[in-house]
Amino acid sequence: MDYMSEPANSKVRFTAALAGDSTGKGSLAAAYSRATQILQWQLSYSGLSGPVTWAYLVGPDGTGAKAEIVPINLADESNPHPGSATLTAQQAEALMAGQWSVVLKTEQRPAGEIAGDIVRSTR
User: Fold this and answer.
1) pTM for this structure?
2) Boundaries of every domain in the chain
3) CA 68 to chain centre
């Protein structure tokens, strides 16, 4: 998850624990580079009711602002799923403020099978 030109300790780290009303669970580990404005992540999950139909990051949560969605591409069958996105200044500000979450949807649970808030991590 690290760029050669940027020290690893200059990135802001995030995690999310994903759960819902099913036996599914998951986790997200992410790092945001202020220098490149890129958020990189590893998404893991198991025990879902079926294949994921849509996965995404969303924010800001609960602020009354229009939600912005960053899709997560799960075309690769590997688990954990790596990914990245370039964030706008507004998206990065909401992420830093703890206003983003991650959601995984399945056919049986189209409103979202598992989800979790993205929070800053010390590691």
Assistant:
1) 0.85
2) 10-120
3) 13
